[in-house]
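User: My instructor asked us to take a sequence, write out its structure as tokens, and then describe one feature of it. I'm not sure where to start. Here is the sequence I was given:
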Amino acid sequence: MKDMLKGQVALITGGASGMGEATAKLYASEGATVIIGDYNVENAKRVVEEIMTAGGNARFYTQMDVSKKETVDAVVKATIQEFGKIDILAAYAGRTFDNEKMSDEERYQITMNVNMTGTYNTVFAVVPYMKERKSGKIIICSSNGAFNPTVPAYDYHMAKAACESLTVNLAMEVAPLGIRVNCVKPGPIVTPFWDELMAAGDERTQMLNNIAKTEVPLGRTGTAEDIAGIALFFASELSSYVTGLCLYVAGGMGYVYAHGQSFTLQAMAGITPHK
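Assistant: Let's start with the prediction itself. The structure tokens for your sequence are:
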């Protein structure tokens, strides 16, 4: 199918890299006008240029820090002024701060501000306009680790769990208005996200490969495009009867292996798990 999003306007936060970038490019290839909301101005402009060069339509208005409501509101306002609507919101913006030099309290607060409050800010900047039109699709990004962690990451996983709660609560409220809200729960996806956790290189590649072999039934790490495909499903009429769904996109993690970390620990200990 082609032009599944023809004529629609999509705001993608975190659209300048990783899963957000892949989703922006896929949406644009399916006919959507894509608005990149991101903190990284240079990368955002690059993504817009690449989309336009490929024959799509994209915009970047100004730097967006989702933890600061005023910057989110500025991007939403600029989008409404130019296009009069926002049909799709894909809220990917989020990160960890594990490599930043700060206290545990500071790390907790900034992690929650970006990943939880930032998602809240973005969603509720857009929802009023969708309510006016009685139409819209919202895709929120959580994490496999929120309820199926490979390793403890308390603040980040707490924030992502809150995003899933937001998904189901908002879906219940806006369903009568024809607005659908769904959530993507990525597993081990190879994107720049991992740069905050471990420097790129052979050691990280080996670590991710080990996770895939011991925890992922499909036996491989995921790509940003794996997530983009699901985001397209949620944004298109293919999912017209789906709302309030929190979907693992993790190669079987979360469904086939509900507690995959036990396989990792056994593998580290040299124990062969029962099949």
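For the description part of your assignment, you could build on this observation: The two ends are 40 Å apart (CA to CA). Try explaining in your own words what that tells you about the chain.
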